[in-house]
Design goal:
Number of strands: 15
Largest sheet: 6 strands, mixed
Helix content: 10-25%
Radius of gyration: 18 Å
Strand order of the largest sheet: 3-2-1-6-5-4
Distance between the termini: 57 Å
Length: 187
């Protein structure tokens, strides 16, 4: 049985990687070393052993080495790969700005960790229906398959900027159209 690394060793590795620039997490292929008791709650809060991680810098460091593989999330360094639990999406999109109109529109999202991403072919917007509440659950891809759940106020703003196209109500951004719902369901 492999002993998972301590949170301090992960933090040190993340700090070293970040000091060198954006970590090339997609290039690192360490062996899986186990799961750790780290969780990202649905509201974007990070916890370690049930305790909130209160330092935003620490959360940002961990987020910089976060990778998604299928339905699982991992913290990855050049020598370690540990599994963590993500309740919904690892990030929360807390703001959105629009520039341009129609096909020229660009929607730029800001996450709870201050990352900014503009929706487009490589950063799609998608909407699921939450089975518990029957409410829309909108997401935008931030980077490398990692998504941010779009908060309610931002989603309402997106709906204001949407338009109908080929039987769908949706949004333009980065030259791509993202369908949200069938036009007939917008009644």
């Amino acid at each position: 049985m492999v002993t998972p690394p301590s949170i301090s060793s992960l933090a040190e590795a993340a700090e070293r990687a970040r000091a060198r620039g954006t970590p090339p997490v997609h290039l690192w292929t360490p062996d899986f070393t186990g799961d750790i008791d780290m969780r990202i709650a649905r509201d974007g809060s990070w916890f370690y052993q049930g305790t909130p991680i209160g330092r935003p810098e620490m959360v940002a460091l961990f987020a910089s080495i976060l990778r998604r593989e299928g339905d699982r999330h991992f913290l990855v360094t050049p020598v370690e790969k540990v599994g963590i639990k993500v309740e919904d999406a690892p990030f929360l999109a807390v703001d959105v700005e629009a520039s341009g109109e129609g096909r020229e529109q660009e929607l730029t999202f800001t996450t709870n960790l201050g990352e900014r991403t503009t929706a487009g072919p490589d950063h799609p917007i998608r909407v699921e229906i939450d089975p518990k509440s029957d409410e829309p659950a909108p997401y935008v891809t931030v980077r490398d398959g990692l998504e941010a759940r779009i908060d309610r106020k931002s989603f309402y703003r997106l709906v204001e900027w949407g338009e109908e196209r080929d039987g769908w109500f949706g949004l333009w951004s980065g030259g791509a159209f993202f369908p949200i719902t069938a036009s007939e369901d917008m009644a």
